[in-house]
Amino acid sequence: MADQSIPEARIPIVEESVTGSPDTGISRRRLLGTAGATGLVLGAAGGGVGYAARPPEATPLTSLGAGQVEFHVKHQPGITTPMQARGHLVAFDLAAGAGRKEAAALLRRWSETARRLMAGEPATQGDTDVATDAGPSSLTVTFGFGHSFFARTGLEKQRPVALDPLPDFSSDRLDKGRSNGDLWVQIGADDALVAFHALRALQKDAGGAARVRWQMNGFNRSPGATAQPMTARNLMGQVDGTRNPKPSEPDFEQRIFVPENGEPAWMANGSYAVVRRIRMLLDDWEKLSVKAQEAVIGRRRSDGAPLSGGGETTEMDLEKTDSEGALVVPINAHARITRPDQNGGAAMLRRPFSFHDGIDADGVPDAGLLFVCWQADPLRGFVPVQRKLDRGDALSPFIRHEASGLFAVPGGAAEGEYVGQRLLEG
């Protein structure tokens, strides 16, 4: 869980009616809010209670529901998109006998469904109407390919070197059934029903071509839940995301995305996603004092500022000592170990979700972080940082890596294309 944030921005929505005409019909994105659509009437005789319906009003969507992210973009949506309140991560394996032809047809279906749902439109066939009264709510759908996909489709020569399996780490306790997969889909939205609607539509689209290998559900703080925009907190209560690389930085593109002339050619403008299910041992963590927790992280719990002083974004002084000559930021503090300048410049764009999958019979929560990080090359991004964490991170006793995956995520689909077309039809 490297110490890194991403910028907050929402793309303005373009209104469109359900019927496809801007002048007729009622837009899905104009039906949010029903307080003004029905009235409660108290009966005068006998004190009876009844409901009198009024015609639906074109109530404007709130800003939360109105957010829309474009599908046809240079980089797939869901990478630099601001963190969303709800997320689903799901991996699929191609069905027995399915190959390149079936995979191409599946990605074509998935891309069209994603495009429609991200625009606030119903799915093409058999829409469940789960999100009928909601706007797009900043829905994003992101597609990637796992290492095994290329052998299944006869495309081994197109498999990137950067997709070689991740090395083993001593802190790993990986469940192979919840790791890797031929295909990977990331769904994010600011409304839980909108996110579920997309998940269900894509699962139905898979038909007989692919089956779900594993699925994980996550959440973040909802946009607007705080008085002012701020870096998110994780389930340990720590501000988490302060030093994320930002698109405004001059080397952001080269750190996070494969260049236009990169190899293989079909990965141009794409990125590599490392996905880890990291269980937080919250009972053990919460036994620590706040001071001890801060020493583990290297930052104040209250505001995320480094222990060396200043505010959240103040540069950490790794050499500062206290009155007794001890380092103010401990040598094994998580924030010290994960700094890019302590790892040869290695950087990742972290875009995680928290998760909570219930409480076991002993009262222990199954909760933690669905860690998702993006980089142009995982061998220069995730791997060196995780190796260093593996050797002496103070946070290690309080977390457990339980699932893992690495996926090649191609660039965004141009108008008229589907995601992965340059691989599957190249």
From TrEMBL:
Co-factor binding details? Binds 1 heme b (iron(II)-protoporphyrin IX) group non-covalently per subunit.
List residues of the Dyp-type peroxidase N-terminal domain.
76-220
What InterPro entries does the record tag this protein with? Dimeric_a/b-barrel, Dyp_perox_C, Dyp_perox_N, Dyp_peroxidase, EfeB/EfeN, TAT_signal
Which reaction is recorded as catalysed by this protein? heme b + 2 H(+) = protoporphyrin IX + Fe(2+)
Among Pfam families, the record links this protein to:
Dyp_perox_C (PF20628), Dyp_perox_N (PF04261)
Q: Which UniProt keywords apply?
A: Heme, Iron, Lyase, Metal-binding, Oxidoreductase, Peroxidase, Signal
UniProt KW Lyase keyword: yes
Record's protein name: Deferrochelatase
Protein family: Belongs to the DyP-type peroxidase family.
Specify the taxonomic lineage: Bacteria, Bacillati, Actinomycetota, Actinomycetes, Kitasatosporales
User: What compartments host this protein?
Assistant: Cell envelope
Q: What is its EC number?
A: 1.11.1.-
Purpose of the protein: Involved in the recovery of exogenous heme iron. Extracts iron from heme while preserving the protoporphyrin ring intact.
Q: Where is this region: Disordered?
A: 299-320
Q: Which residues form the Dyp-type peroxidase C-terminal domain?
A: 231-413
Q: Cofactors per UniProt? A: heme b
Q: Which domain of life is it from?
A: Bacteria
The answer to keyword Signal applying to this record is yes
